[in-house]
Amino acid sequence: MKIIIAGAGAVGSHLAALLTRDSHDIVLLDEDADKLAAASEGLDLLTLTVSPTSISGLKEAGTPQADLFIAVTPSETRNMTCCMLAHQLGARKTVARIDNAEYTQPRNSDFFTAMGIGSLIYPEELAAHDIVDGVQRSWVRQWWEVHDGALITLGIKLREEASALFGQQLKDLCKPETPFHIVAIKRDDETIIPGGFDELYQNDIAYFMTTKRYVPYIREIVGKQHYPDVRKLMIMGGGRIAVQTCRMLPDYMQAKLIEQDAARCRQLADLLDNDDIMIINGDGRDTQLLVEEGIRQTQAFCALTAETETNILACLAAKRMGVRKTVALVENSEYITMAEKLDIGTIINKKAIAASHIYQMMLAADVASVKSFTIADADVAEFVAVEDSLVTQQPVMRLGLPKGIAIGGIVRNNEGILVNGRTQIQAGDHVVVFARTSMLTELDRFFRKSRGNIISRLLK
What we know:
- This protein has 460 residues and is of the alpha/beta class.
- Helix content is 29%, strand content 25%.
- It is built from 15 helices and 22 strands.
């Protein structure tokens, strides 16, 4: 697959590193030669020092032959412009990173499609969704729903209270009649897509797939009943992610937002005209301020400044003051593992979130959504099975799925169903698949329609 990435900043360089693992033909464009050199170090890709809005530069990069054109420069306007140019030059799919939530509203989709912009990515809004999902449930690390909750994935840190789950092979723990499956395990620095002979251990982060009906049951067996429901939330940092988070909070939740810059506080007061959101001008690292503002009576704390180290330290301080649920924005990928080992809680990384959505656009099969497990080297995707595809030809146990890939459940007629080896997938089923990061493209041949006895090759 030929992929052109415009912009060698944080998101562009992260995408380039991720996509080169799949042996795609990658071209990275930027006007800054130093950024290109840093982003391409050790990677098998082509770099071009050209303006992404230069028609001659786009032609030189091979845009007319591009399967996917991704614009992730710091400028929203530039991203939209170069996507329109790329579309006119012949690029099959275009993706633009934007900073305006209004553009992502469904009613505007046809408008941007007509302009040649196939998809819009607003990482701050996507991150806010993950934050709100996290703070609403203080006992989970990650929460992901398929079909409005027909199936749910829960990432849960297993502590000693979950001892009933330890010491059993998964084939015995997750029987066909069991109302959950363990679909992934994060253990120290290792991510496991487990088989029947694997076991769970204390301090694992286990990813459960279940239906909404059995979420309370899982909460009980992992010993998280005593974790408080979040009613009061404190947020440090008043950037775009914080604004989007506040706008998405449920009505029953109250929030205090602490921002150092007085001018930004005045802007926030206008942006967040909500009686349940209190804007405080101060330093969120000031423990005395936090105590005065009632952090000991707060169930969740979100550190969303632009400084990764500050966010991690602030969450640690909040935990020492009794806050059960903490969320840290960790923009530096090198700190993600450290933050997890420090037991921060939910970790948000915009680059990983944006990459998940762009991955969805790379796949030739019908993919409804893709979700990245930020702290684990794994993704979960919702594929739609089509008539005559390989995945509908035999029971799951006989499909020959590559190692590192597992099917967790299906949604059929809006009903969530957990799968076992004897499950027969049907055309129209929404199939939830778990895979090691960068392996999702290997699933295309299972979900794309077969033509006689000739199966379409993988996109590589």
